[in-house]
From TrEMBL:
Identification of the protein by name: Adenylate/guanylate cyclase domain-containing protein
PROSITE patterns listed in its UniProt record: GUANYLATE_CYCLASE_2
Sequence intervals crossing the membrane: 348-367, 374-393, 405-425
One Pfam family it belongs to: Guanylate_cyc
Keyword list, A-Z: Membrane, Transmembrane, Transmembrane helix
Domain of life per record: Bacteria
CDD domains: CHD (cd07302)
Cited InterPro entries: A/G_cyclase (IPR001054), Adenylyl/Guanylyl_Cyclase_3/4 (IPR050697), CHASE2 (IPR007890), Nucleotide_cyclase (IPR029787)
Domain Guanylate cyclase: 466-600
Length: 723
């Protein structure tokens, strides 16, 4: 293991450990993100609505218009109980607080009159007593709320049985409750709290506590009590987790078993809010006989009485993003229990997610450090897809809630960090390779230094040069997939082979710039016919690279070929010793150098490996050249006409090239005239060109997308302006 790999592994392990500890602490943003994912699952696959014996008697806007504003006198609620009981409902649960006497009761109204005789008061009806009398021996459940003041705690109408130690420390704590009128408390068949989300900071309702605790006694909520009273059950049975004190796993209510969280909460699996759940209170209290269909719908049903009227401000947000009255939450919870469609997050889910973060992180660090970031990326994408798929299928088919987001986010952070470190190491090693190749001097320069007494002086002279730039295509991708030593070995093989072609054709190797070569002809000594020799060197490089790829000289494996781009330009440049007195090198500078470099860069856009400028093409005689357009090169105001080099003189003399040249010239005219047959000509040229050079078909496939490189002549533009 190299020093860089050791540092990379240590850094990766530190990041994985930090992310694992962060997830173990489970900060608020992790919880919010996890719950948002679970909400999205419910929106994608909500609990289907089923006709259940559960209904809501709704104090809606229509009821308020018909029967007056809320609160209603309690003799009207007594009438509601009477009529529902006559319809044969299984239970009536009020999601309403009865903590104060009815101010609309006749007795309460007259009591405020001074001097009213006591015997008169005694003969006046009391609405609270009327309501209390109506619920006697009927399956009525009243609600109470959590209070921060006082010490009142309601009666518990049911017993509790435990499979282990009583889990009094598991549910949310209740210190006091809103008081109930004694007569109502005594006559109710059940009492349940109506608090849906005590202490929950999220506006979205996802769980509700089925139990509260004062430390010595458990208090059921309205949902449980309605279900118990409807079945005529008298006891709740609570199961705890073995070896885990103060935890609850299941609550048995009559014939139904409800899986809960350790705190005794039920995960709500919402069904879209439907009008079929609701019955307007005005219909029940109407003077007319209720229709038979309404009687059938309510017979044997668990009925919750609550309000949806906007002014009563009992609206909650569900995981489906709907705003519903709070009473419907109780109704949906009972529906969920009756249907047996539960959601649960196992106690071991947190541990599984933490372990998955650690294992995935360790594998990503190992793959990035010892293999390649690309393999690590594939692994990370696989982990992402697997986590999402496993989480979704667990929810969809087993009702289990597993968080895919935390492992994915942590794996992404780990991969990014490890890859960034790897790239930094590769970049450093690439700089070392450049420094090593920068020491390479051509034999011609050594000869000049040895035989010229003033060669080691700063300065230069202006002369005509032919400049060549060679660059490896997708060198970054090659570097990322291989260890630094492999990258250096690859560059040594390639640059050495290409450099031999430059030297063999009397060229001067100026410098190696990472994966690039800069060379020039006609300095430091005169080179006759230097432009032609530079192009012959480029053609030799093409053959050399083809041979290296065919022999798999780089060890990349079958099909993994290397490509280069070559740009050549002829013009005046300043050439000589440049730098400082302590350290300098023999090089060329000037606009000619810049143009050659830009032409090489244009190889990517043109889609061909060897491009020369018009000034170089003028020296090439009968070589196989094809005009590639007039390109705007970076940093230059005027366009530069360039040519693609298809081959040398023997290639140009073939009949195949003559035919191609004829079609090519027609294509150029069509492109400049924006003719409709340009595409057909490009296709024909591409088919003919494959016999000349295997890279030419790609050149013709791209040429139609470069129409701006073939501007119309001034005559055509003038004609268009006249028209």
């Amino acid at each position: 293991m190299t020093r860089a790999q050791q540092v990379g592994v240590m850094l990766g392990l530190a990041i994985v450990a930090a992310l694992t500890l962060l997830r173990s602490d489970d900060p608020l943003f992790f919880r919010f993100a996890r719950e948002a994912v679970f909400d999205e699952y419910q929106r994608l696959a909500p609990r289907p609505f089923e006709q259940m014996p559960v209904r809501i008697v709704d104090i809606d806007e229509a009821s308020l218009r018909v029967l007056g504003q809320w609160p209603w006198p309690r003799d009207r609620l007594a009438l509601l109980v009477d009529r529902l009981s006559d319809m044969g409902v299984a239970a009536i649960a009020f999601d309403i607080l009865f903590s104060e006497p009815d101010r609309l009761s006749p007795r309460s109204v007259v009591e405020a009159v001074e001097g009213m005789p006591a015997d008169v008061l005694g003969r006046l009806p009391d609405n609270d007593q009327i309501f209390a009398n109506s619920i006697v021996s009927r399956p009525v459940v009243l609600g109470f709320g959590i209070s921060n003041d006082g010490s009142f705690l309601p009666q518990v109408k049911a017993g509790f049985a435990f499979t282990g130690e009583p889990p009094f420390g598991a549910p949310p704590i209740i210190k006091a409750a809103t008081p109930l009128l004694p007569a109502l408390e005594a006559e109710a068949a059940g009492l349940g709290h109506i608090s849906l989300d005590p202490g929950n900071p999220s506006p979205v309702l996802r769980t509700i506590p089925l139990l509260l605790s004062d430390g010595t006694q458990l208090y059921p909520n309205l949902t449980l009590e309605a279900l118990r009273v409807a079945q005529g059950a008298s006891t709740y049975v609570l199961a705890d987790a073995p070896d885990k004190p103060d935890t609850i796993t299941k609550i048995k209510v009559g014939d139904f078993v409800v899986p809960v969280t350790a705190r005794g909460e039920i995960w709500l699996y919402f069904s879209p809010d439907r009008a079929e759940r609701y019955v307007s209170a005005a219909r029940i209290l109407s003077d007319t006989q209720p229709p038979e269909a309404l009687r059938e719908a309510l017979q044997g049903a668990i009925v919750f009485v609550g309000a949806s009227a906007a002014g009563l401000q009992d609206i909650r947000t569900t995981a489906l993003g709907q705003h519903v009255p709070g009473v419907s939450i109780h109704a949906q919870a009972v529906e969920q229990i009756l249907s047996g469609r539960f959601l649960s997050r196992p106690d071991w889910a947190d541990g599984l997610e933490i372990v998955s973060i650690a294992l995935a992180g360790l594998l990503i660090v190992a793959l990035t450090t010892f293999l390649s970031p690309a393999i690590a990326l594939v692994f990370g994408l696989t982990v992402t897809v697997a986590a999402l798929a496993a989480s979704w299928f667990a929810f969809r088919y087993a009702g289990l809630l597993f968080d895919p987001l935390a492992p994915i986010v942590c794996a992404t952070i780990t991969h990014f960090s490890a890859t960034a470190f790897r790239i930094l190491v590769i970049d450093r090693e690439r700089r070392e390779v450049r420094r090593a190749f920068g020491k390479y001097l051509s034999p011609e320069l050594l000869y000049r230094i040895e035989h010229t007494h003033d060669a080691l002086r700063l300065g230069g002279d202006e002369r005509e040069l032919t400049l060549m730039f060679v660059d490896v295509r997708d060198f970054t991708g090659i570097s990322e997939k291989r260890a630094p030593k492999e990258v250096v070995a690859f560059l040594n093989i390639l640059l050495d082979a290409l450099s031999r072609d430059v030297i063999a054709h009397e060229g001067m190797l100026d410098k190696f710039i990472g994966d690039s070569i800069m060379a020039f002809w006609n300095a430091p000594v005169d080179v006759p016919d230097h432009a032609r020799k530079a192009v012959r060197a480029a053609l030799a490089m093409r053959r050399t690279l083809a041979s290296l790829n065919a022999d798999d000289a780089f060890g990349f494996g079958p099909g993994q070929s290397v490509a280069i781009g070559i740009g050549i330009h002829t013009g005046l440049a300043c050439v000589g010793n440049m730098g400082a007195e302590a350290h300098f090198n023999y090089s060329a500078v000037g606009d000619t150098v810049n143009v050659a470099a830009r032409i090489e860069a244009a190889c990517k856009e043109v889609g061909f490996d060897i491009l020369v400028s018009e000034s170089t093409a003028a020296y090439l005689g009968e070589m196989a050249l094809l005009e590639a357009g007039t390109l705007p090169l970076k940093g230059r105001q005027s366009r530069t006409r360039i040519f693609a080099v298809g081959g040398d003189e023997p290639v140009a003399a073939t009949g195949a090239f003559a035919d191609l040249r004829f079609v090519h010239d027609q294509l150029l005219e069509a492109l400049r005239a924006c003719a409709a047959d340009a595409a057909e000509l490009a296709h024909a040229a591409g088919e003919q060109s494959s016999a000349i050079n295997e890279a030419l078909p790609a050149f013709y496939r791209r040429i139609l997308r470069r129409s701006e490189h073939f501007p119309r002549c001034e005559g055509q533009r003038a004609e268009e302006r006249v028209e």
